[in-house]
Amino acid sequence: xxxxxxxxxxxxxxxxxxxxxxxxxxxxxxxxxxxxxxxxxxxxxxxxxxxxxxxxxxxxxxxxxxxxxxxxxxxxxxxxxxxxxxxxxxxxxxxxxxxxxxxxxxxxxxxxxxxxxxxxxxxxxxxxxxxxxxxxxxxxxxxxxxxxxxxxxxxxxxxxxxxxxxxxxxxxxxxxxxx
Length: 179
Known about the structure:
Distance between the termini: 78 Å
Shape: elongated
């Protein structure tokens, strides 16, 4: 005689906040799944997560079909999808000073904003030499150029941004490197 053991399957469940959405605020997902040990999230905007309780910042105003896949140790899966609204007002800014090699939040200079779909950020020294370029808001300048920390000075920047709603912004200004 063979014995068949039936295991309880997972049950996917989650909530999120803020609900209703708050402008330019990340969404905190709270996972209430039962009998699950592994999770996969699809936020409906081409981004995913394997965290149990992820935080996600949507990049445009829309309602996204967010799906949670809850797996148990036996490979069984349950899926729950819910509409999640996001409210994003497109804005962008660049700090005017930073302190490389410091312990604080200002040790790199990077573009800050919401709704950024594409960007081109360039920083030049006083001789017009390009010392830094970035196409990602998460990648900032640490004050180094060719492995050398640059001197305390004002550096010019140019910034071209296309937001997720199709609008575009160009900015120019100065950033002071403080040592």
